[in-house]
Amino acid sequence: MKMLSLLLFFFTNITCKENTSVYICNSPGAKKYHYTSSCRGLSNCTYKIIKMDIEKAKKDGKTLCGWEK
Questions:
Q1: CA of 26: how far to CAs of 18, 38, 42, 61, 62, in Å?
Q2: CB 3.0 to 4.6 Å from 25: which of 8, 30, 43, 68, for a disulfide?
Protein backbone atom coordinates (compact mmCIF):
# COMPACT_ATOMS: atom_id res chain seq x y z
CA MET A 1 0.00 0.00 0.00
CA LYS A 2 2.85 2.37 0.84
CA MET A 3 4.47 1.66 -2.54
CA LEU A 4 1.20 2.41 -4.35
CA SER A 5 0.90 5.72 -2.53
CA LEU A 6 4.47 6.60 -3.44
CA LEU A 7 3.91 5.77 -7.12
CA LEU A 8 0.70 7.80 -7.16
CA PHE A 9 2.53 10.77 -5.62
CA PHE A 10 5.26 10.70 -8.29
CA PHE A 11 2.78 10.21 -11.13
CA THR A 12 0.66 13.20 -10.12
CA ASN A 13 3.74 15.41 -9.75
CA ILE A 14 4.96 14.46 -13.22
CA THR A 15 1.60 15.07 -14.90
CA CYS A 16 0.90 18.37 -13.10
CA LYS A 17 3.77 20.29 -14.63
CA GLU A 18 3.14 23.83 -15.84
CA ASN A 19 1.27 24.12 -19.10
CA THR A 20 3.51 24.74 -22.08
CA SER A 21 0.78 26.53 -24.05
CA VAL A 22 -0.86 29.81 -23.12
CA TYR A 23 -3.35 32.21 -24.69
CA ILE A 24 -2.84 35.85 -25.60
CA CYS A 25 -4.90 38.60 -27.15
CA ASN A 26 -3.23 39.26 -30.49
CA SER A 27 -3.46 43.06 -30.15
CA PRO A 28 -0.39 45.29 -30.38
CA GLY A 29 -0.77 46.44 -26.76
CA ALA A 30 -1.38 43.06 -25.12
CA LYS A 31 0.99 42.48 -22.19
CA LYS A 32 -0.40 39.38 -20.47
CA TYR A 33 -0.64 35.64 -21.11
CA HIS A 34 -3.40 33.37 -19.83
CA TYR A 35 -3.54 29.65 -19.02
CA THR A 36 -7.10 29.27 -20.36
CA SER A 37 -8.84 30.88 -23.31
CA SER A 38 -11.85 31.55 -21.08
CA CYS A 39 -9.85 33.63 -18.57
CA ARG A 40 -11.64 36.74 -17.33
CA GLY A 41 -8.61 38.80 -18.37
CA LEU A 42 -9.28 38.00 -22.04
CA SER A 43 -12.93 39.07 -21.93
CA ASN A 44 -12.18 42.55 -23.35
CA CYS A 45 -10.01 41.30 -26.21
CA THR A 46 -11.38 42.63 -29.51
CA TYR A 47 -8.61 40.97 -31.51
CA LYS A 48 -8.11 37.27 -32.14
CA ILE A 49 -7.13 35.14 -29.12
CA ILE A 50 -4.22 32.93 -30.10
CA LYS A 51 -2.49 29.96 -28.47
CA MET A 52 1.30 30.01 -28.19
CA ASP A 53 4.18 28.46 -26.31
CA ILE A 54 4.72 29.97 -22.85
CA GLU A 55 8.41 30.49 -23.56
CA LYS A 56 7.58 32.56 -26.67
CA ALA A 57 5.08 34.65 -24.68
CA LYS A 58 7.68 35.34 -21.99
CA LYS A 59 10.32 36.13 -24.61
CA ASP A 60 7.88 38.65 -26.12
CA GLY A 61 7.63 40.36 -22.71
CA LYS A 62 4.25 38.97 -21.66
CA THR A 63 3.56 38.31 -17.98
CA LEU A 64 0.94 36.16 -16.26
CA CYS A 65 -2.53 37.66 -16.02
CA GLY A 66 -3.44 38.92 -12.55
CA TRP A 67 -6.66 36.90 -12.51
CA GLU A 68 -4.67 33.66 -12.65
CA LYS A 69 -2.05 34.29 -9.98
A1: 22, 15, 10, 13, 12
A2: 30
Q: How many residues does the chain have?
A: 69
Residue 40 lies in a domain: yes
Which SS3 state, helix, strand or coil, does residue 41 take? helix
Number of domains in the chain: 1
The letter for the amino acid at 69 is K
Give the H/E segment covering residue 23. strand 21-25
Domain membership of residue 43 (yes or no) is yes
Domain of residue 55 covers 20-68
pLDDT per position as a tens digit, 7-53: 555 554 444 445 599 999 999 999 999 999 999 999 999 999 999 99
